[in-house]
Design goal:
This protein is an alpha+beta fold. It has eleven helices and ten strands. The chain has helices spanning 2-10, 101-107, 128-133, 143-161, 173-185, 193-200, 204-215, 219-236, 241-247, 253-264, 268-284, and strands spanning 15-20, 27-35, 38-42, 47-54, 57-61, 64-68, 73-76, 82-86, 92-99, 120-121.
Length: 285
């Protein structure tokens, strides 16, 4: 984490720098530094739990401005719109873990997802096990370590939710799982409501309510995020954005750009440039 602090302190160039660490199915870990730029309003279909390492992080969340100081943590819920910027001209740096809501729910024994009303958790109020998840993000995660990360995040969410949860108390998890598997296996197909009803055995209204309670987002948005997963992988592999748009099932590059920015707060080109900037910093060390 000290390296991230130094990147922010020594940076003379405005922009985003991002570096992905080792992850696992449903888990991503990221280190980022921003100087003189900001994330546009966007939303994820995952939980995002991060710690500010340097500078002052500001973001608007649920209609209110928030501030996250070094050592403080922030919790962003699935499908909640937020932005992100530095509170001072010096920029800020952070590390964050993105976790599939299905993993959270499974690790807590089922039921609705926990909801943390205050997105900023003060320094010293987070279990050291969560901090350990972001200490060495470059190390790959095996199955046991992935479970440990999941439990650390889920237990933190539950501890700070105060027992609050939203949504139906009883979920038909096997039925919802079949819909989720269909979307993961074939995200390029625009499935009809009848397809989901046939696969799940639930009516479309029950399915819509229960899917969000179980996975933190709607089936339609879940499908969009899986297409964006494919787009990110292709961008990181060096493909041209026009090719990426077609391969990921978007109408054209403009469509990809709009959806990408809504999800990540950056255009695909800016996202790729941020990764490249972090690689250059690493190469100079």
């Amino acid at each position: 984490m000290e390296e991230t602090i130094e990147v922010v302190r020594r940076s003379r160039t405005h922009g985003h720098r991002m570096r992905f660490g080792g992850g696992a199915a449903g888990i991503e870990r990221l280190e980022a530094a921003l100087v003189g730029v900001a994330f546009a309003p966007h939303r994820h279909d995952t939980y995002a739990v991060g710690v500010t390492l340097a500078g002052v992080q500001t973001f608007r969340y649920r209609g209110e401005p928030r501030h996250c100081l070094p050592g403080e943590w922030h919790v962003l819920h699935p499908d909640e719109v937020h932005d992100g910027a530095a509170g001072t001209d010096d920029g800020f740096g952070y590390r964050i873990v993105y976790l599939d809501p299905a993993l959270v729910r499974d690790s807590l024994g089922g039921g609705p997802l926990p909801f943390v009303a205050d997105p900023v958790i003060r320094a010293g109020r987070v279990d050291p096990a969560l901090a350990a998840c972001l200490r060495d993000i470059d190390d790959p995660l095996d199955d046991a370590e992935a479970a440990e990360v999941t439990v650390a995040v889920a237990d933190t969410l539950r501890a700070h939710a105060g027992g609050r949860a939203a949504g139906p108390a009883r979920l038909d998890l096997p039925a919802l799982g079949r819909v989720r598997e269909l979307l993961v296996a074939d995200p390029l197909t625009r499935h009809r409501a009848e397809d989901f009803e046939r696969v799940s055995g639930l009516d479309r209204w029950t399915l819509a309510r229960q899917f969000r309670a179980a996975f933190g987002t709607s089936p339609t948005r879940f499908r969009t995020m899986r297409r964006l997963d494919r787009a990110r992988a292709l961008i990181r592999a060096g493909h041209a954005l026009g090719e990426v748009a077609a391969a990921a099932g978007f109408a054209d590059q403009s469509h990809l750009t709009r959806m990408f920015k809504r999800a990540y707060g950056l255009t695909p080109a800016a996202w790729a440039a941020a990764l490249a900037a972090a690689d250059r910093v690493t190469a100079r060390r």
